[in-house]
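Blinded run. Sample ID left blank on purpose so nobody reads anything into the name before looking at the predicted structure. Input follows.
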Amino acid sequence: MAETTTITLTDVATFKQKALQWANYFPTVCLLDSNNYPQLSYSTKDWELAVDAIRQISTAENSLKQLKQFHTESRSTIFGYLTYDLKNELEDLQSIHQDRLGFPALHFFEPRYVLSIHGDKLTVNRNYPETVELVEMINKIDLNQNHSHSSIKLTLRTDKSTYLKNVASIREQIIAGDFYELNYCNEFFAEGVSLSPTTVFNSLNNKASAPFSCFYKLEDKYLLCASPERFLAKNGTKIIAQPIKGTVKKGQTEEENTDLIEQLQNDEKERAENVMIVDLVRNDLAKTAKPGSVKVEELFGIYSFNTVHQMISTVVSEVNSNVHPIDILKAAFPMGSMTGAPKVMVMQTIEQYENFKRGLYSGAVGYITPEGDFDFNVVIRSILYNSKNKYISVPVGGAITFDSIAEKEWEEILLKADLARNVLSIDYQ
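Blinded prediction complete.
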């Protein structure tokens, strides 16, 4: 077992910001931050920063097969991501749109440094003298340097008129029986922009305080993510999925929030969306589960975040101990909450309506332990940035069903983009 050292921090919040800025000097970084969110269960990490790659894997084909081999050979926990476009390897599908960000289909790495914080305790995968030296180096970092960015205007990849027409067409296909539900996404973007990824992430994270937030750096490519959603976790032989379907804005007063929560709880459209995805997730988990072990632990749970209320359900299963963790991920990917149902049909159709490559958006970021436990989020509520191309992408989406009203779907994607707009001080055009 690798040597570790635990020390007590005097100013946890400041240290976290400085540690991320220190990490950003390296080409490969993954920060996972639960923000001490009190409601969602099953989380095993509070704040963990993985820095610099001893070994890594970046793939364009046979990705999950290569990942399985990489995990087998790893000596410690590996961190990484799966892009939405891995669907093309899992099914007879393709991604026809231009890739403006350049994330490889899959990336995982075994980190040189791992810093974990629980409460005021910092644990580092180093002996005591090396840990003290590292902490001193991090504490010397100046957070007051100018990290401002120029004014940013986000442009919609699909304008409102086209979006509304597409929602109407999707509904017509639902009525015709082609599928039940389709997750339709739009992209806000800006070109020629320079920004400080660490500063933007800290602002995003402070505003959202989401339980599956993450910062991911792969050379000149960044993911700044404030996700409220877990894709899939494995704890021993227990598998946990917690899909989100159902969103309403956060109110200004306690009374208003009580009314909004009640509206969401009783909204037939949102409940229908949620239960359809729950059924899809049950089917995905059944592929690797012990017979009869798939259960809905919670249906239509309402969870409150800093900017929105969400409807979240929890589906669990049991697997045999000899089932490989990568096979469990493979059976459920991409997550149903970002596709719709039935999954293959809607993924084919999504390419016809959307006009940008999702890439890491709608994918998942997380970790896998040597023992095979894992936890992965759903990459939503995110800012994606290529510092070389100076390109910013803020994708947003929502589920279209028979009961969808196009104008309300439009309002929902604007609501979901508000977090990024507020963080970046941007305007739409």
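Unblinding after everyone has recorded impressions. The two ends are 54 Å apart (CA to CA).
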